[in-house]
Amino acid sequence: MDIAKYIDHTILKPTTLISDVEKVCNEAKEYGFAAVCIPPPFVKKAKELLAGSGVKTATVIGFPFGYSAIEAKLAEVVLALVDGADELDIVINLIALKNDDWQYLANEINHLMPVIKEKGKVIKIIIESGILTDEEIIKCCELYGAAGIDYLKTSTGYAEKGASVHAVELFKKHLPQQVQIKASGGIRDYAFAKELVEAGATRLGCSAGVAIVKGERGAEGY
């Protein structure tokens, strides 16, 4: 399977050190991960560390709760792009969703998408599937699928429930074929990572990337 190529090697804790960022970038290069996902203040540093490696630099917007104003998210997007981010993982406004304000969510994505797409960068939308109903997940698939995002992402890792095979299967069933799926939150071993990929995930956001790759090597006997 070569699980490494699916992994966004992630460190997003609020106490992240420069040494932590250096470590994940070095590991990403060593193991051939798809991207590193780091807090916005470290985008420029990660971009330097990953130069020439083929590993993408990803960061988060409106993280982890998603209830920042659209204008604030837009400012974060612009700064991340200026600093060199290749991929942006944006938390939707879950307050709007839970209050059934889908017009707000449509307005939010319509403000953020053009800025990112103009620069040819990748947009991943985080919906926190673990705290949504199936009906809410399906409505998100319809809204963001129609908007033309690159990935729909399950979770921030900060809610009480992270990625699940059920959510990935629901995404797969209700998203347009061209929209990819990123599973994240609570992916700590190869067995679960493999299940998620088999269910349809094309990216995995996890801080246990090295352990997962070693788990694959053990399972496959190499």
Automatic annotation (TrEMBL):
<feature type="active site" description="Proton donor/acceptor">
    <location>
        <position position="182"/>
    </location>
</feature>
<dbReference type="GO" id="GO:0009264">
    <property type="term" value="P:deoxyribonucleotide catabolic process"/>
</dbReference>
<comment type="similarity">
    <text>Belongs to the DeoC/FbaB aldolase family. DeoC type 1 subfamily.</text>
</comment>
<dbReference type="InterPro" id="IPR011343">
    <property type="entry name" value="DeoC"/>
</dbReference>
<keyword id="KW-0963">Cytoplasm</keyword>
<feature type="active site" description="Schiff-base intermediate with acetaldehyde">
    <location>
        <position position="153"/>
    </location>
</feature>
<dbReference type="InterPro" id="IPR013785">
    <property type="entry name" value="Aldolase_TIM"/>
</dbReference>
<dbReference type="InterPro" id="IPR002915">
    <property type="entry name" value="DeoC/FbaB/LacD_aldolase"/>
</dbReference>
<keyword id="KW-0456">Lyase</keyword>
<dbReference type="GO" id="GO:0005737">
    <property type="term" value="C:cytoplasm"/>
</dbReference>
<dbReference type="InterPro" id="IPR028581">
    <property type="entry name" value="DeoC_typeI"/>
</dbReference>
<comment type="function">
    <text>Catalyzes a reversible aldol reaction between acetaldehyde and D-glyceraldehyde 3-phosphate to generate 2-deoxy-D-ribose 5-phosphate.</text>
</comment>
<dbReference type="GO" id="GO:0016052">
    <property type="term" value="P:carbohydrate catabolic process"/>
</dbReference>
<comment type="pathway">
    <text>Carbohydrate degradation; 2-deoxy-D-ribose 1-phosphate degradation; D-glyceraldehyde 3-phosphate and acetaldehyde from 2-deoxy-alpha-D-ribose 1-phosphate: step 2/2.</text>
</comment>
<dbReference type="GO" id="GO:0006018">
    <property type="term" value="P:2-deoxyribose 1-phosphate catabolic process"/>
</dbReference>
<protein>
    <recommendedName>
        <fullName>Deoxyribose-phosphate aldolase</fullName>
        <ecNumber>4.1.2.4</ecNumber>
    </recommendedName>
</protein>
<keyword id="KW-0704">Schiff base</keyword>
<dbReference type="Pfam" id="PF01791">
    <property type="entry name" value="DeoC"/>
</dbReference>
<feature type="active site" description="Proton donor/acceptor">
    <location>
        <position position="89"/>
    </location>
</feature>
<dbReference type="GO" id="GO:0004139">
    <property type="term" value="F:deoxyribose-phosphate aldolase activity"/>
</dbReference>
